Fold this sequence. Notes:
- By secondary structure, the chain is of the alpha+beta class.
- It has 2 domains: about 1-40 and about 60-110, no CATH class; about 120-475, 6 Propeller (Neuraminidase), CATH 2.120.10.30.
- It is built from 5 helices and 25 strands.
- The strands form 6 sheets. A 5-stranded antiparallel beta sheet has the order 1-2-25-24-23, with no helix packed on it.
- Helix 1 crosses helix 4 (about 95-110) and helix 3 packs across helix 4 (about 95-110).
- The longest helix is centred in the first third of the chain and has 41 residues, at about 1-40.
- The radius of gyration is 25 Å and the shape is globular.
Amino acid sequence: MKRMFSLVGGITILGLFWYALSAEQNTEKEQIIQGQQVYNDYCATCHGEDLQGGMASSLVDGEWQFGSKDSHVFRNIKFGILHRGMPAFEDGLSDEQIRAVVAYMKNAEQNAGVVEAEPAETVQTLLYDLNVETFADGLEIPWSIDFINATHALVTERPGPVWQIIEGRRLDEPISGTPEVLHQGQGGMMDVAIDPDYKNNGWIYLSYSHALDEPGERRPPAMTRIVRGRLQDNTWIDQQVIWESPPEFYRETRHHYGCRIVFDPKGYLYFAIGDRGASEHAQDVTRPNGKVHRIHRDGRIPPDNPFVDTPDAIKSIFTYGNRNAQGLAVHPRTGEVWETEHGPMGGDELNLLKAGVNYGWPEVTYGLNYNGTVISEHVSKPGMASPVLYWKPSIAVCGLDFYRGDQFSRWNSRLLVGALKYEQVRLLDIKDERVMHEEVIFNNFGRVRDVATGPDGAIYVVLNSPDKVVKLTMAREKP
């Protein structure tokens, strides 16, 4: 009887053990599911829907700069890492939600490395079927592409190198002598732009994050800088600094640098600088951040810039109240400059830029802080321009270009919009300053950092995760 009781008791205890283990596993699974939802709502815009990084660092590469223990990650989410642009979520998320998102991230890190299926070689749109082919790979965080001619392209990598791609082949070595960049956070080598009169003057323009060389242990302040130079074989020469901020406006933050470069038909050069994490500066025309700027290509200030006569204003400012412009494009028929800028959590914007106009950030916005708190109760105010279009939730807008070419003639003057978060290229049909139609023409190939029309009429898409450039050509035109 004793033995029978012991056996039954043993079975009962064993059953309770397995029940408890099963319940614990279910609890962990439920926590991870909850954490994934929290991540998608609050974290994916910066760290990517696949956790591979984008505006902020990857969460599945095994590198935890501020501690890898769960307690460290919990602390960093709750209290933030403000000097790196990581907000505090203690007011927007409960401790339970933070623990859930940590569990989700750590589970994703353990499962990283799973090989996904190869993407399709053709994609369908309303008017065309598109061929998709690799134009350049073996890159590290490519950021921008521009073309010297139909067979010669330049591609920047955020860590600093600039590469030549000639006749479809990337050279064995990057261009030597390009400026040293501060590759931290969202900073590094950013845009490359070819002078409209390149055949005669050979100028190439670069934007990058630049740090002040200061003695001591202080974190070096940084800001966006614009230079131009020329190519001699595979060497950068004749560099000129055509725009840089006064040193007192450099900041120790490492995010919201901007920065795109475009030229309008009159030859003016436009570039954007993000608010650098100080949103209130976007409303202050005595500071360069949170603005779109206009200069001559040699750096001179146009005399009709809107703030040239405003005391203490930065004379290059063209518009202000811009949070973090990641796309600039010039309409091929009207010469107007269009801009896309990142909202916070929700409220990415498409704007038509006009001299001296205030685009509202942070006084008006359609988004929230990343921790869920309210930035502004207003989505419009007198004297502040409303966006032509806004995206909520944010698609994490990036590179921008108006299509102009023969391959897709029915798309001429339509706007190509890159999206990091949703891994898309969208096509916008714009009439009379209104978006009449929006179509996703490219999806789920990777985070879209830049999109550009090539001289051959193909569409070139710069991807992160995987790091490559793909080329879209016409497979078939639909009736």
